[in-house]
Write a structure and sequence with these properties.
This protein has about 400 residues and is of the alpha/beta class. It is built from 14 helices and 15 strands. Helix 5 packs across helix 9 and helix 11 runs antiparallel to helix 12.
Length: about 400
């Protein structure tokens, strides 16, 4: 991971701006028709120009051969070793919607899902129901007023689309519980299993809640079931500004990514943006107030998980079309990358390294690249490195780090 103590010892003031533009699940695999990935096939004249003016590389979010989840992938982008600082997705979702998580809470991220007549999962995302439908179903569960033992309170909140969050609050609860999502169809949801003796009571409480909540929505369709993932407690991470000396803002549409940014101490910017153009317009409005801007684009990942090569390519092209507005702000450092790879051929996250573009007009050493793509990044001047290296690189190019040693 980034050496936080070393970075803190080298920090120096500078009036420079850094933008980290994350296209979730950016990396892909070449398709048979033209031997190009989604990024390579996309028409992206602005990114290609930045590649010519900057330098390229590729990174591993966790380690070579390890497929990263979104939470660990983003932690690594922010310089935190994801193997040391584990955050369950439940906490990310809860914090992302602004739920006041306390040290007495265990959070789980939920999916509404579709079950067949035998109780097997047909669709893990219930046909991607709308946020409005999710809100209705959560309200129906809350109206059932499910009661649990040990004085434990339960909070259920809608998140977005088919996602919701469950928070249990009480004494001596533990988040060491295996998820109930089997990650495949044709099988029933799993029970919540304790992963150590301390979690047995909490697992029993979650199973009791699952039983009662499932009965409430049994006659709904397509969301007639539920699965839980990412059981966790608030991790108490060291904060971004203390480590890097940066006033940091997060502009994300999906709550989970606002959550991870909040947990590391970034300001979560409230906005109504629904596409990357509008996100950059929000960024322009707050440009003078911050030094570091994390802008998250979700739909590269979603379209990859859908197995839709052309749709993922189109999202990349949409981002490229919005870049001129960002460049008008004259950032000193712009990094374009992803938190992991999501090849549409695999319909899932993968272990492949993630392409990265670093553009810093005053400090970047051009590496001769002519376009932004996986193979160009594999040959790029930055090489292949751990994602936790990105923040020190950004600070250095922003001239915010002093020399080490005499």
């Amino acid at each position: 991971m980034a050496d936080f103590a070393l970075i803190q010892s080298l920090l120096q003031p500078a009036e420079t701006k850094i933008v980290l533009l994350v296209l979730d699940g950016l990396g892909g695999l070449p398709r048979a028709e033209d031997d190009k990935t989604e990024l390579e096939a996309a028409h992206k004249p602005n990114m290609d120009r930045l590649a010519r003016e900057g330098c390229l590389g590729q990174h591993y979010p966790v380690a070579p051969g390890i497929t990263s989840g979104s939470g660990p992938g983003h932690l690594a982008l922010f310089g935190y070793d994801p193997l040391r600082y584990e955050i369950g997705r439940g906490v990310l979702e809860a914090v992302g919607i602004g739920f006041p998580v306390t040290e007495r809470d265990v959070c789980a991220r939920g999916n509404f899902c579709t079950l067949d007549s035998h109780g097997n999962i047909v669709d893990r995302r219930a046909g991607r129901i709308s946020t409005e439908e999710c809100t209705r179903l959560v309200h129906k569960i809350n109206q059932a007023n499910i009661q649990l033992d040990n004085g434990v309170e339960v909070f259920v909140e809608p998140v977005q689309d088919y996602r919701f969050v469950v928070v249990m609050r009480g004494d001596n609860l533990s988040g060491e519980i295996a998820e109930t999502d089997p990650q495949r169809t044709g099988v029933p949801p799993l029970p919540a299993l304790a992963q150590n003796p301390e979690s047995q009571i909490t697992a029993r409480l979650f199973n009791r809640w699952i039983e009662k909540a499932s009965a409430v929505i049994r006659d709904e369709y397509p969301a007639n079931g539920l699965i839980l993932r990412g059981f966790a407690k608030e991790p108490g991470l060291p904060k971004f500004r203390a480590i890097y000396g940066l006033r940091a803002a997060a502009i994300a549409i999906y709550p989970m990514y606002r959550g991870v940014a909040s947990l590391v101490g970034m300001d979560r910017i409230e906005h109504q943006a629904r596409n990357v153009q509008e996100q950059i317009e929000v960024l322009a409005q707050i440009w003078r107030q911050y030094d570091f801007f994390f802008v998250h684009v979700k739909y590269t990942d979603s379209r990859g998980e859908d197995g839709n090569f052309e749709a993922k390519q189109a999202v990349i092209e949409e981002v490229d079309a919005a870049l001129p507005l960002l460049l008008e702000l004259k950032p000193d450092v712009l990094i374009i990358t992803g938190d992991h790879s999501t090849p549409s051929q695999l319909r899932s996250h993968s272990w492949h390294p993630v392409p990265l573009l670093l553009w810093a007009p005053a400090t970047a050493r051009r590496d001769g690249s002519t376009h932004f793509g996986e193979r160009a990044c594999a040959r790029g001047g930055l090489g292949t490195f751990a994602a936790t290296t990105i923040m020190p690189l950004a600070l250095a190019h922003a001239q915010r780090l002093a020399k080490f040693g005499a």
